[in-house]
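User: Show me a protein chain along with its predicted structure.
Assistant: Here is one chain, sequence first, then structure tokens.
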Amino acid sequence: MQNKRDILILFVFVAIGVLTRTILHIGPNVEFITGISISAGYFFSSRKYSFMVPLISLAITDYLIGNSMIFLFTWSAFLIAPAIGNLLEKFAKKSSFVGKLALFQAAGAFSTLIFFLWTNFGVVITTSMYANNLAGLMQSYVNALPFLRNQLGANLVIVPFLFAATHIFTNYKVKSRTSPRLHENYATIA
């Protein structure tokens, strides 16, 4: 049963990732990939599934919207998020729900900063936009600050929201429409 739940969540997360990078794109660097990837790392019983979420989402969306050699840096940066989710799953078990929300918010901020640093380094390495030296790298970071602001601000909201929504979904128990007494009576008849 756990595996079926993981597959369902995998499809839901990939759909969220694809839709929010294409049709439901909100703004520059406002993305859901970080949130679904951290949540995947936290909730999936299989680490394989947690890393499939960003990879499948990015493969589909990059096919649809295109990309350049920077994909090597964006994809690898987004793979940090499920690893962070795996760590949260190990260390946040005893935290309260509110504590977990705060941890997810911090994880979203940390993932966003890693993404910012790594992908802007990639811009310097893979394009001719900046000089391939420390001054070019610093200029890349300065010019990308508005994108960092958008991504960081969005992930401070999106990441804990996706955690909360997934937490509620995975802990929701379907109540039987029949009374327990009816089940007892059926058991004695059968």
